[in-house]
Amino acid sequence: MQFRLTNTLTREKQTFTPIDPNNVGLYVCGVTPYDNSHIGHARAYVVFDVLYRLLRHIYGENHVTYVRNFTDIADEIIKRAAERNEEPTALAEHHIQSFYADMDALNVLRPNIEPRVSTHIGSMVEMTDELLAKGYAYVTPSGDVIYRTQKFPRFGQLARRKLDEQQHGSRVAEDTEKESPNDFVLWKANAKSATKMEQAFNPKDYGAQHFSAPGRPGWHIECSAMSRQHLGPTFDIHGGGEDLQFPHHCCEIAQSEALLPAGQPMANYWLHNGFITVGGTKMSKSLGNFTTIKDALQKYSPEAIRLWLLQTHYRKPVDYSDEALKAAQQRANRWQRISEEIMPDHLLNVPLPKEFIEALADDLNTSEAMAILESWPDKIGKVRMMQFLGLLVRAQSMEESPEEIQLLLDRKKARIEKNFPESDRLRDLLKEEHGIIVEDGPNGQTWRRA
RNA sequence: GGCCGGAUGGCGAAGUGGUAACGCUACGGUCUGCAAAACCGUCAUGCGCGGGUUCAAAUCCCGCUCCGGCCUCCA
Fold first, then answer.
1. For the ranges A15-19, A211-215, A281-285, A335-339, which has the lowest average pLDDT?
2. CA A188 to C1' B75, whole Å
3. What integer pLDDT is reported at residue A199 of this predicted model?
4. Nearest to A50 by CA among A396, A394, A386, A395
5. What is the pLDDT, as a whole number, of residue A288?
6. For B25, which residue's CA is nearest its C1'?
7. Could you tell me the distance in Å between the CA of residue A316 and the C1' of nucleotide B18?
């Protein structure tokens, strides 16, 4: 079987060959936990969840290491914590738990390792120090450590940027302490920062030789340091949203590859997912046009949201609209009914159809995979595929209340007595007031939650 | 200004040379007290526009139009 992925480095679909099939490494940039996650985040993590499931299927459950970080030290967190008169660590922790709740609801598997910036300061200080020692960084008068992009000619290559053609400073004031406008911060000295942290980290405590100003790590260094620590200097796949291509991933490459022998890459394959848009415009916090995962889950089932996200190829934009979600909900409901006919333990030894895996192995063609599922002849096979895609959430069917049970009994009785006006009234009542859909089949009355 | 990407039926969406998957909606039918569900069937002579290559193009080439993204933090 061919396993191919579109590599942003080459912009081509390439055959995936792991460095070590017994230990495939996947690193995906995680969230900055300062607010509830929106469905744009959901897309990224659902997409990479499917990739993770596929890698585990191909190479074995214990032969994939999936690392996804939490940027729990960041300006946004410090700023918001100050606004709310809260401890930054408490704010971050709160939102990490919120993120977990969302991911669990969407049936996103937990990565193997979820490193946090706050527990990896040492790795970052160490890497910053190495970059200074090799002349890839410099210390400014105010104590910042800045990456010297001119020393790394390939800077921006992943995003195909020609640096002299960028519009520097067009949207943000330039930092006069930088040697070049492209240079970026590795270590942010507390003294200078607009958002001060009460307890800054002291580089000396972590053995820094070449810089000393207390402060905190810059944004980009975390992924370089944490991926190196957990996956090694060169690993298989690095993923994230397409907005991270530049500058974030370009900076990561500059940092990591400056410390590697010439020609040795940080990661062999770079994958980027497309955005969620709203009326064609990118969903983002700053535009305020976002819908949180929690809000979406109020209106649609987790299966419907996952199905909606996966019906489009991961690199294309997906527009969020109630119409689209409603359509996905309809399809998800139908699938749900099929899955309810199959006992979970009947799926244990059901193989996944070859063509289904082949579709997914063709650059994660989830649309094609879903079409195969749709036209598959037997239900067990269908449900097995749903399970693979993470679409068997099986929301715990809520227990009926005594009142509801009585209404259902009354309705059943009325219908047996052919008191149709009354049975129809109770059917409507159950639907409108209790969200219970009553249906009459060959075996009598059945019901389900809407 | 530079770079990147997108445009397929009413809606969503797959499809990188061989004559348009799949889903939602709609419509017709079976079933039903009526519904719902389920099942069967119907729905793009056409893939943003104009040229070109080819026996053959949604798919390749050239030129446009429109929309979006990145160059600030962003999944």
1. A281-285
2. 24
3. 64
4. A386
5. 86
6. A327
7. 27
Rounded mean pLDDT, A281-288? 86
Query: Which nucleotide minimizes the distance between its C1' and the CA of A307?
Result: B23
- Rounded to whole angstroms, the Cα distance separating A328 from A286 reads 28
**Cα A118-A285-A215 angle, rounded to 5 deg:** 30
**pLDDT at residue A16, as a whole number:** 95
Say how far apart CA A105 and CA A49 lie, in whole Å. 13
Task: Measuring from the CA of residue A338 to each C1' atom, give the nucleotide at the shortest distance.
Answer: B38
Q: Which has the higher per-residue pLDDT, A191 or A58?
A: A58
pLDDT at A191 over 90: no
Q: Which residues are within 8 A (CB) of A42 and not within 5 positions of it... i.e. 6 or more apart?
A: A102, A106, A293, A296, A305, A309
| Residue A169 confidence (pLDDT) above 90 | no
Residue A405 φ then ψ, to 5°: -60, -40
DSSP line for A201-222: BPGGGGT-SS----EEE-TTHH
Provide the CA A439 to C1' B39 distance, Å, integer.
Answer: 16
Nearest nucleotide, CA A275 to C1': B75
Residue nearest to nucleotide B5 (CA to C1'): A316
Compute the distance between CA of residue A224 and CA of residue A218 in angstroms, rounded to an integer.
11
What pLDDT sits at residue A20? 98
Q: Side by side, which strands form the sheet with A281-282?
A: A281-282, A276-278, A318-319
CB A37 within 8 A of CB A48: no
Domain spans of chain A? Answer: 4-276, 300-388, 402-449
Name the residue with the least CA to C1' distance from nucleotide B12. A324
Q: In the prediction, which pLDDT does A196 show? A: 57
**3-class SS of residue A131:** helix
pLDDT band, very low/low/confident/very high, at A217 (cuts 50, 70, 90): very high
The torsion of the CA quartet A328, A330, A332, A336, rounded to 10 degrees, works out to: 180
Residue with token string 């062999």:
A268
Report CA dihedral (A318, A322, A326, A328) to the nearest 10 degrees.
10
Find out if CATH 3.40.50.620 is the number for domain A4-276: yes
Reading the block at residue A73, the tokens are 């030290």
| Residues in Cβ contact with A349 at an 8 Å cutoff, skipping those fewer than 6 apart | none
**Residue A198 to residue A125: CA distance in whole angstroms:** 19
Closest nucleotide C1' to the C-alpha of A363: B14
Q: Which two tokens stand for residue A8?
A: 């942003």
A424 CA → B30 C1’, Å: 23
Tokens describing residue A133:
């020692």
Which nucleotide is closest to A35, CA to C1'? B74
